[in-house]
């Protein structure tokens, strides 16, 4: 078919209302209309859909568009029917959601030649009755949308996509156009080969989205961060991605409790609910959709102003595609991802049991994600490089690393030391074990292997354990080291690592880029774990720490017993000026607020007045009531009645570890419990005294892990946790 440029522009204006094409759209359409195969690699928002919609409307026959999601099909069909008003038969979709009557309607419109675009799920395309029906019509071309689903190296591999070529061959030959927004050179090669279109002309647009801002945040208190961010951006549309359906539901509920209009979207919801929630987002009845990766493919909402990843994605392809749904109109688009290495460990565990080849692929994709998250380099440069495109500017001016450059140091000696340690040992060990050896921190496992007698034990004691963990992580990212998933994360030296050790060279590593271990999916309590600084008032924070130091000397208590660093950091952000407001800070229960809070409140009140601070007094994260509330009441009553903890746990079908976690949450919230009756019956007095004195005199925090390492006696974790609870109730609250 021959159609000139003038005619194409006329059709573009008639059907879509545009005066001009964007980027390579006109070249792609002309190529396809001329009867040739095409491969289109175009970022989200670049206008991929038009590349097959317009040719379908101007060519004879029906275009078969193979698409992975029912929601995407409905959205696209509605859009085409809107362009060509008064003719609903112009576009249809064919999938498992249709009734028998609807299927008959589709068949009639196809056979009459009225339908120009037929959207088909890959599963529906393989059904014999559909193949036979499609053999009866004239097909203008086949469009394979979201073509990255073909490749095992893609972020959303679907085995059904592998059968597309054989089905096309059985239906009848016609030009093929494959389209995707994300494909590395490896994925691109897979697509062309699998579809049998190696000679197709490749149209590749730049992956750079200059209007998008990229940031990776420490996943220490993501819920609070997200609510704060959304409240600072009122009325703006956004998408929040989570890896689990449970977290989607929880987060959507939490946002609503805090006055943010949000709905969930995931594959576990029924089709009607999903469609309704999607429509409410598109029609701006809600501001935020909280979703798994099932949401967003092809959704044409140009004014999404932020995309937040509560969980770090499994691959950079997935991350890029999902962030690409922000700012499709060229306007503001903020892309924020929360990261902790704990999430990576979880994703690695999920791979166990899968075929080795699949694990290998997944492991390499995850390593790329870790490299992106932990890197101090320009994030735009990293993303574009991953997709085979060079970004030559040194500073993009629109990512956290470029706006706030991280300190660097030459890690040549440190990397060589790690490699030397791994190579010197006859067996392989996990990252944390190696970090402990270099930091000179002994524990039961190190003693059992007699690694405290190694020549390199303590060779890096000038740096703490976390420093060595960080350097080893970066060594994995640089491919000097490798972590074997099959053998539970044991560290090996690669050929590249050995070559580096033989001929060392400058390796710039990131300083002070530590990420917290993150929060557990079920951990909604304030907790007592570490929390990274959250950008509070640094002058006030310094004053609060000075006050804490003075009080600790007067009271002869460790500073953390009065208030932990996370509590002081929250104070420097929230400026609490009453006991009630103070209790909103992390790790501050009613007991602590009453016992230690008055001087802190007085200091903050004076500081706020003198500096004319506008306090964010409306920012209090409201919690969602959960089923464990009844458990907590039962536990408190059981302890008050001096029931054995085993009986309390059994009555609520809890493991002892779970019961202790519940008790720790109760105590952290400010409720005092008298556990002496149980401790006296189950732990020797001298053991209680030593552990108690440790927390009172020596401990720098209430960390169980540190206690297990610091206490030389072979105490059980259960004993330490119980005595810590006794100490917290008697001294720290």
Brief account:
The protein is 48% helix and 11% strand. With 733 residues, the chain is an alpha/beta fold.
What's the CATH superfamily of the largest domain, by name? P-loop containing nucleotide triphosphate hydrolases
Number of strands: 17
The low-pLDDT segments are 518-534
Shape: globular
Largest sheet: 7 strands, parallel
- Topology-level CATH name of the largest domain: Rossmann fold
Give the name of the CATH architecture of the largest domain.
3-Layer(aba) Sandwich
If you average the pLDDT, what whole number results?
84
Give keywords.
6-stranded parallel β-sheet; Rossmann fold; 7-stranded parallel β-sheet; 5 domains; globular; 733 residues; alpha/beta; Arc Repressor Mutant, subunit A
Description:
This protein has 5 domains: 5-204, P-loop containing nucleotide triphosphate hydrolases (Rossmann fold, 3-Layer(aba) Sandwich); 212-403, P-loop containing nucleotide triphosphate hydrolases (Rossmann fold), CATH 3.40.50.300; 412-505, Orthogonal Bundle (Arc Repressor Mutant, subunit A); 538-610, HRDC domain (DNA polymerase, domain 1), CATH 1.10.150.80; 628-732, Arc Repressor Mutant, subunit A (Orthogonal Bundle). Strands 3-4-2-5-6-1-7 form a 7-stranded parallel sheet, with helices on both faces. Helix 18 (412-424) packs across helix 22 (495-502), helix 30 (656-668) packs parallel to helix 34 and helix 32 packs across helix 34. It is an alpha/beta fold.
């Amino acid at each position: 078919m021959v159609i000139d440029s003038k005619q194409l522009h006329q059709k573009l204006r008639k059907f879509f209302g545009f005066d001009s094409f964007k980027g390579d759209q006109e070249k792609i359409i002309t190529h396809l209309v001329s009867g040739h195969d095409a491969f289109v690699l175009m970022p989200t928002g670049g206008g991929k859909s038009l590349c097959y919609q317009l040719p379908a409307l101007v060519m004879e026959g029906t275009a078969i568009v193979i698409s992975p999601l029912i929601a995407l099909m409905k959205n696209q069909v509605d859009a085409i029917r809107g362009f060509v008003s008064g003719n609903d038969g112009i576009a249809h979709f064919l999938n498992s959601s249709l009734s028998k009557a609807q299927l008959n309607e589709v068949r009639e419109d196809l056979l009459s030649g009225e339908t120009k675009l037929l959207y088909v799920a890959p599963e529906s395309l393989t059904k014999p009755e559909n193949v036979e029906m499609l053999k009866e019509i004239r097909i203008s071309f086949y469009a394979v949308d979201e073509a990255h689903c073909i490749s095992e190296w893609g972020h959303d591999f679907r085995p059904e996509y592998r059968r597309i070529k054989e089905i096309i061959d059985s239906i009848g030959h016609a030009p093929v156009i494959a389209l995707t927004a994300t494909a590395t050179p490896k994925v691109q090669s897979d697509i062309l080969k699998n579809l049998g279109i190696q000679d197709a002309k490749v149209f590749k647009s730049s992956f750079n989205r200059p209007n998008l801002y990229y940031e990776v945040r420490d996943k220490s208190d993501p819920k609070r961060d997200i609510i704060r961010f959304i409240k600072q951006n009122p009325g703006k549309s956004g998408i929040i991605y989570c890896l689990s359906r449970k977290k989607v539901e929880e987060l959507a509920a939490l946002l609503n409790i805090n006055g943010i209009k949000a709905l969930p979207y995931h594959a576990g919801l029924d089709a009607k609910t999903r469609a309704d929630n999607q429509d409410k987002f598109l029609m701006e009845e809600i501001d935020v959709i909280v979703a798994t990766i099932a949401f967003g493919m092809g959704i044409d909402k140009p004014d999404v102003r932020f995309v937040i990843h509560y969980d770090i994605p499994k691959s950079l392809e997935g991350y890029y595609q999902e962030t690409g749904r922000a700012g499709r109109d060229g306007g503001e688009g903020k892309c924020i991802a929360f990261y902790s290495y704990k999430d990576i460990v979880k994703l690695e565990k999920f791979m166990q049991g899968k075929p080795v080849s699949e694990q290998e692929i997944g492991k390499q994709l995850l390593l790329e994600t870790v490299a992106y998250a932990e890197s101090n380099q320009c994030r735009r440069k990293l993303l574009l490089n991953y997709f085979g495109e060079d970004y030559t500017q040194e500073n993009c001016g629109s990512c956290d690393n470029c706006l706030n450059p991280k300190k660097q140091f030459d890690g040549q000696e440190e990397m060589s030391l790690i490699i030397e340690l791994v190579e010197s040992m006859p067996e392989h060990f996990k990252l944390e074990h190696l970090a402990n050896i270099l930091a000179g921190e002994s524990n039961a496992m190190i003693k059992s292997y007699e690694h405290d007698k190694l020549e390199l034990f303590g060779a890096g004691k000038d740096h703490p354990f976390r420093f060595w963990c960080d350097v080893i992580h970066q060594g994995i990212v640089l491919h000097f080291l490798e972590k074997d998933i099959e053998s539970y994360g044991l560290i090996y030296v690669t050929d590249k690592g050995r070559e580096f050790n033989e001929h060392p060279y400058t390796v710039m590593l990131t300083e002070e880029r530590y990420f917290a271990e993150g929060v557990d999916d079920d951990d909604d309590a304030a907790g007592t774990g570490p929390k990274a600084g959250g950008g509070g008032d640094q002058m006030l924070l310094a004053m609060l720490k000075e006050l804490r130091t003075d009080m600790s000397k007067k009271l002869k208590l460790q500073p953390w017993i009065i208030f932990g660093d996370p509590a002081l950091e929250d104070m420097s952000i929230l400026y609490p000026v009453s006991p009630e407001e103070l209790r909103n800070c992390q790790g501050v229960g009613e007991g602590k607020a009453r016992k230690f809070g008055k001087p802190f409140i007085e200091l903050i009140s004076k500081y706020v007045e003198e500096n004319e601070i506008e306090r964010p007094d409306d920012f209090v994260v409201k919690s969602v009531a959960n089923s464990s509330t009844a458990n907590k009441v039962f536990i408190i009553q059981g302890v008050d009645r001096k029931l054995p903890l085993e009986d309390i746990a059994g009555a609520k079908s809890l493991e002892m570890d779970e019961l202790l976690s519940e008790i720790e949450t109760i105590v952290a919230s400010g409720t005092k419990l008298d556990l002496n009756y149980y401790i006296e019956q189950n732990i020797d007095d001298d053991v209680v005294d030593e552990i108690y004195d440790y927390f009172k005199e020596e401990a720098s925090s209430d960390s169980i892990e540190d206690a297990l390492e610091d206490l030389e006696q072979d105490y059980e974790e259960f004993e330490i946790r119980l005595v810590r609870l006794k100490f917290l109730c008697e001294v720290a609250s």
